[in-house]
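tmp note - AB hydrolase-1 domain-containing protein
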Amino acid sequence: MPEVIPADSVGLVEPKAIRFDQSLPLNCGEQLDSFQLMIETYGELNPACSNAVLICHALSGHHHAAGYHSMEDRKPGWWDNCIGPGKPIDTNRFFVVALNNLGGCHGSTGPTSHNPKTGKAYGPDFPVMTVADWVSSQAMLADYLGIEQWAAVVGGSLGGMQTLQWSIAYPERLRHAIIIASAARLSAQNIAFNEVARQAIMSDDQFFGGRYLEENSLPRKGLGLARMVGHITYLSDDAMGSKFGRELKNEGFSYDYNVEFQIESYLRYQGESFSGSFDANTYLLMTRALDYFDPASDYGNSL
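out:
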């Protein structure tokens, strides 16, 4: 937690829930009759509404991209090193909008939200989302905020896919598309890793067909394994070797199946910490959206 707010921080910020009482048709054939998006904004929107930047998050991201919610926060938002006064996305110049996507688990309508048709959490009944669905909801958000054109849409990984989709679906509504560490579609190997992750979750005996909240349970083992698989894909072999190598956690082998290598310790920590803070149904939804994204397929496999 900070003793003082750094001069280049956006400071203390407060999330805002925006409700949309209009239907959103989805690619899966279903629709959301109404929904909520959780957002944060940093900086000031100029009179011409021409300085707005949209931040699209990756698989496990959310709306809290910069600053602090309180002085008790252990760390700032997930992209605080890039968003703030004098930083690459300079809040002295730009009005920055970050949101939690539909299907997320940090305040926007998703699997943990109340389903008005059943009176329970949506759980596995929440519709499957696509990147195009997210961008459609983000366009509705832009309309709500009075933003006809973004100065830039920015995103990494799954967020980069959303940025690309913006440039295809609404080219007149953004001046710049900043795509970081992303791709126009996943490879077969990427899809395979996602499937292993999903199977780890769905095979957990606490998953209960996705209705674990009704059983007052969480599939923590499965979600933790899924996160471990994910982290293997986030680092190249060279990067992983450089960061961890074959370093042992303790001196010498213990000749058992507890943690021995530093890479094992890293993966277990990531899995255990993530499994208590993220929703398993959301993880399934996000990985499937990654799998489906392939905008070139609508244009003769050419962008």
